[in-house]
Amino acid sequence: MNAGILKAEGLCKSYRDKEVLHNLDLTIEPGKIYGLIGRNGAGKTTLLGILTAQNTKDSGEVTYDGQPVWENQKALDNICFSRELQATLFSGPNNLKVKHYLKSAAIYYPNWDMDYALRLLDEFKLETKKKISQLSKGQMSMVTILIALASRAPITILDEPAAGLDVVMRERFYQILLEDFAQTNRTFVVSTHIIEEAASVFDRVIILDEGRILENAETEELVGQFRYISGREDVVDRVCNGLQVLSTHQMGRHKTVAVRGNVGKLAAAQEAEVDISPMNLQNVFVSLCGHGDAQ
After folding, report:
1. pTM, whole model, 2 decimals?
2. What is the dihedral of CA 183, 148, 75, 184, to 10 degrees?
3. pLDDT, tens digit, for every residue of 30-60?
4. What dihedral do alpha carbons 146, 149, 150, 151 form, nearest 10°?
5. What three-state secondary structure class fits 261?
């Protein structure tokens, strides 16, 4: 499945007097699974909505294969943004049935795969005659996942898809995602707060912080730049010379720091009398976006 490049340039978006996105640039390349992570209020859902023409921008441009996505059905035919379903609507309970969502998706998405949708219905044990208002939060998450995967859209975006799932179903979701990716090589963007469970799935990770992109990098390459270093204060201080210190915790003369550096400098630190341990993606995220919060 050949996806084009989804590109944002100079995106700005404000709600009243709060600027949510600040002159943001982003390129989503074909054939990768991206993880989008950020704190609450960082602008993740706003960004995804603008990338898929479901939200307006104040300035900037979003293109797919060089063509604007806004009011361009040809471009939008290649993009699926599956968002969380709501049990209630403005008029009261959401009485639409699962089958109504599937019928709408079959009309809207030109690459819709009904056979795959039916297999996922069976996998997730979903009843098509049930109203959305009758579903559990986990079942609503399964419906959004089903629509996203069965859309077969070259670029498929899921916003917090696993939020309502228990740990067993979250693991199964990521297995299904990887199986589909291996088969289709389509591009996925997955926004999530449950970072460590999903980290091994992401080819690249985008870290959004206060409306700006801090990182858009290969996951393993990014995580490999970070370490915890602990030991006697004076030795740790000497070892950290030339490394970027992101956080410090001290107890008496014992000091632990989170650092970032290139492979050469990190390797040199191994020679000193300190303890060095790796960081996982969640640790990296907290170190970059914690802003001094207690950890």
Report:
1. 0.91
2. 0
3. 999 999 999 988 999 999 999 999 999 999 9
4. 120
5. coil
Taking alpha carbons only, the member of 36, 25, 51, 38 closest to residue 155 is 51
Q: Look at residue 249 and give its three-state secondary structure.
A: strand
Above 60 in pLDDT, residue 286? yes
Q: Are 286 and 295 in contact (CB under 8 A)?
A: yes
* 294 close to 273: Cβ distance less than 8 angstroms: no
Task: Locate 163 and state its tokens.
Answer: 């939020």
Give the separation between CA 60 and CA 248, rounded to whole angstroms. Answer: 38
Bridge partners of residue 190, in order along the sequence: 35, 158
If DSSP codes are grouped into helix, strand and coil, which group holds residue 17? coil
User: Which two structure tokens, joined as six digits, stand for 292?
Assistant: 């001094």
d(CA 122, CA 8): 37
Which residues neighbour 215 within 8 Å (Cβ) at sequence distance 6 or greater?
Answer: 205, 206, 207, 222, 288
Q: At what angle do helices 114-124 and 98-108 cross, to 10 degrees?
A: 150
Count, residues in the chain: 295
Question: Looking at this protein, which amino acid is placed at residue 13?
Answer: K
159 and 45 Cβ atoms separated by less than 8 Å: yes
Region at 49 (left for phi over 0; alpha for psi -120 to 50; beta for the rest): alpha
The pLDDT tens digits for 77-123 are 999 998 888 887 777 888 999 999 999 999 999 999 999 999 999 99
